[in-house]
Prior knowledge:
The complex is a heterodimer.
Chain A lengths: L1 H6 L2 H23 L6 H26 L7 H18 L5 H25 L4 H20 L11 H5 L4 E5 L2 E4 H19 L1 H11 L1 H6 L4 H27 L10 H11 L11 H20 L8 H47 L3
Antiparallel strand pairs in A: 1-2
Chain B lengths: L18 H12 L1 H19 L6 H10 L1 H15 L7 H17 L4 H25 L4 H20 L4 E2 L3 H8 L1 E3 L2 E2 H18 L2 H11 L1 H6 L4 H27 L1 E2 L7 H11 L11 H20 L4 H32 L10
Antiparallel strand pairs in B: 1-4, 2-3
Amino acid sequence: MGVLLDRLSPQVLRVLALVIVLILVILFFGSQIDNYFSARLFNRISTSVAIMALIAVGQTLVVLTRNIDLSVGSIVGFTAYVTGQLLVDSPELHPLLALLAAIAVGAGFGAINGLLVAYGRVPAIIVTLGTLAIYRTMLVEFSGARSITTASLPDWLLELPRLNVFSVGGFDLRFQVAVMLVVVIAFHLVLTRLRLGRMFYAVGSNPEAASMAGINAARIVFIAFVLSGALAGLAGFMFLARFGNITVVAGLGFELKSVAAVVVGGVNIFGGSGTVIGVLLGAVLVDLIDASLVRWQLISEFWRDGLLGLLILLAVAADAVLMRQFIAVRQRRAREKQSRMLAHAGAAERVPA
Amino acid sequence: MLVPPSACRRNDTGSLIMPNFIKALTDRLFGWEGFLLSILIVTMLVNVSQSAMFLTIGNQINLFQLSIEKIIVALVMTLIIINGEIDLSVASMMGLAACAFGWLFQIGVPVPLAILLVLLIGAAGGAFNTFWITRVGLPSLVVTLAMLIGFRGLARVLVEDRGITDFPDWFDALGQQAILGPFPLSLLIFLGLLAFLIVVLHVSGFGRYVYMIGINKSVAEYSGVDVARVKATLFIASSTIAALAGLLYAARVGAVRGDVALGFELDIITMVLLGGVSIFGGSGSLIGVLLSILIVLNLRNGMALVNITGHIQTGVIGLLLILSVLLPNIRAYLGGLWSRRRPAAGAGGPE
Lengths: 353, 351
């Protein structure tokens, strides 16, 4: 145990703790709900997580740099609608172009946020609170309050959510889930291995120090917002494929869910620490609990949100308290080690004298 | 203590002199509040030119009535943000209060007792937030975000997907009819609360603590300020006032549903930030927030007069929120460029 405490980084411990919580939650609901370990539920939750995890990864990048992006829900709604409209108008458009269009629109919105935050020096919460309203307004205006319907969309798009990469006994790895996993792994590698990735952490943990170390902090913040917008755009495309019917309220409230996934996933809301893998687990946990409570006979489904709020609080509190304890234990051990070494050194000095 | 600290500079002989008060006034007029005032005047002039009915007492009161619950909550939110925290759970508490009232009414609790119980629920919700913020030490952004979901969930548990209506006539009348001259109860509550909070924030010692904690929490702590107690007071007050606002909403609309006040937190925070309160805490004033409330109300009313729909109104206010912080930054940046081009002026260069 002691060796473990010294060796494992707090981040790895966090992920381990999340995995344990996740297993406990699954076992708990498994004992409560009949037919819980079914392929159907797995497929349902995995496709739903595929969308939320993409948004949450983007949110993670922004939160890592000490900012927040509250406009993601509106970006998801707008890109879903615009891409849908694009495909309604020109159904023979190449799927890849439609996908790129969605990502580009999202990145454009993200760039507006990023410009205002990084170069206009307006606090992120103010900018994205504003653009949350503005982008939604643009959607309402653009759509003229009409909806996109499944009937008007090309077939390939509607088949996309059911597209399988492979399937083991009914447990499918859907195409969308695979895309999400690729994105998560890519961002995990970028954040842990690349110089650019470490810059996100540097800017988030101490902007002044990062600047003095020669990091262009404004540029990093700008990139974070652009990527968050682009991922929200990708999520908007997935949202369109999954639901087909897009109204002006598409993506409403996603900003809060993504922040919840990020916070449960162990990212410090004040920037500088957190992992994408943790956030993926956070998104899974939030969605799993959401989907399981609906099926739990013991309580009415109306308890869902109340319990979810409490759960987020407990997850964050447990994380904060455990981390504090962990750091204290570690510091004590380090001190003990140091004093042992000092005593040793002192003894060694005395011998020749 | 009535004037901002900047006005308390002493002259060379060390005594406070009158011109400082005049300077305080001109500082305010050329500062943020003056800017808000000029926007307000422009908005009102445009509105007057659009409709002769605009300046009638009836329309002015109606304009307040339509958003009265939000602006009551915005007053307490001002203190919370100046204190360096945020309360995202207020709108959900408004919903919870309204639904709890409807539920209590439905199971046969007498209305006055139900009102009292709902206010207690508000205080309890605030105490719950406080526990996690001051005892466990979690950021208020996270705690109140969780309770934004949590309180709303409880509201849904209480009324599920029903609507509750048919409250006693006298209760509905409290929300709808004038009780003193042309003023309805909710407007009187707003004005009373505004006057009370101006005294608390800008005159009392407690108000100084609110600013001090917002500027530097550690310094406040080491100076012997009971930071946890100040925060507890503010969060409990915020939740209780939100519950009161929920009741006023129930009375004004005469019905409650699970989605009462859904999303109001964004409007409320916009009003406060537009009023020049720093999101990082430590600065801002209730006068500024009052001006921004008036601007938002007049702008919405004016846009309604020229048939601009609710969604665009929200977009315009979002734009205003961003511009309100962006424009001063651009001005400062251009000012910096200007002084760099004239090195003789020297002092004003970039840091």
